[in-house]
Design goal:
273 residues; globular; nine-stranded mixed sheet; 20% strand; 39% helix; disordered C terminus; single chain; disordered N terminus; Rossmann fold
């Protein structure tokens, strides 16, 4: 099913007994934007609008998010399968070139895994505050009580969100399980980067775990930075931009991110011309 709204085309992709809500709009270089956990197309409205000034943007809702349907499984492999299905549909759009792949948080990890398994399908990659080969797991046994309490709060519906394009239906336990799984995924992600030939840019937050100077936040932020330093030592061609922001930078710093994506691609085009 396809509809048009304000020059944006809405369509669906069916995969693994779920329906994935997809949007396409803008003009210019093809770009696919993959949201992260607990982030929907509606949440990324400002960033998407800015990117559409220079790009033909395809974005979507992850299973259990926004306008996509719920599912029995919310594992990393399940989300990756959904992204593969969306990219298969993108491949049928008769685009003039391979798209730039942009992912935030979990979406960045999905982009890295996809690009490593499907060489030649990405022109460039922009990874926003994710896919980080951190030297230590982000959630340790000591951290579990704190994360359970935090996720219990996140699993409660924000006022007015239920049944809207902003909704996320994952339970606190499903989110915790997925975060623990992502820690394992990131422990081996350097091998994925080594299989990727296209240009890669990182846009990272300085305060991924918040700007509190108390508790575990300073250690988590230091671990986050150490992961990128480790990545760049192993893959020195990767460029990195740091924003004075938290993990929600795709919402709070949309203009900065759109500018960095535009400028970084211009440099890459000059380097390869």
């Amino acid at each position: 099913m396809t509809t048009k709204t304000d020059a944006t085309r809405q369509f669906t992709v069916h995969h693994d007994d779920i329906t994935i809500a997809v949007s396409r709009g803008g003009r210019g270089r093809p770009l696919v934007l993959c949201p992260g956990l607990r982030t929907t197309q509606a949440d990324l409205h400002e960033l998407t609008k800015l990117l559409r000034r220079d790009h033909d943007v395809v974005t979507f809702d992850l299973r259990g998010h926004g306008l996509s349907s719920t599912a029995d499984r919310y594992s990393f492999e399940a989300f990756l399968g959904d992204f593969v299905a969306v990219m298969a549909e993108v491949g049928r759009l008769d685009l003039p070139s391979a798209p730039v792949l942009v992912g935030h948080s979990l979406g960045a990890d999905l982009v890295v895994h996809y690009a490593s398994e499907y060489p030649g399908t990405a022109a460039e990659m922009v990874l926003i505050d994710g896919a980080n080969p951190v030297p230590e797991p982000f959630i340790t046994e000591t951290d579990l009580p704190e994360f359970r309490a935090m996720l219990d709060g996140l699993a409660t519906w924000p006022e007015g969100a239920e049944g809207t394009p902003h909704q996320v239906v994952l339970t606190a336990q499903e989110m915790l399980d997925l975060n623990l799984e992502v820690d394992v995924v990131r422990s081996a992600i350097l091998d994925r980067y080594r299989k990727i030939a296209c240009p890669i840019s990182m846009i990272m937050s300085t305060s991924m775990a918040g700007d509190s100077g108390e508790g575990r936040a300073p250690w988590r932020n230091q671990n986050w930075r150490a992961g990128i330093e480790r990545l760049v030592r192993d893959q020195p061609h990767i460029s990195t931009s740091w924003l004075d922001a938290g993990h929600g930078l795709v919402v709070t710093h949309a203009q900065d991110i759109a500018r960095i994506i535009r400028d970084t691609q211009g440099q890459a085009c000059q380097a390869t011309s």
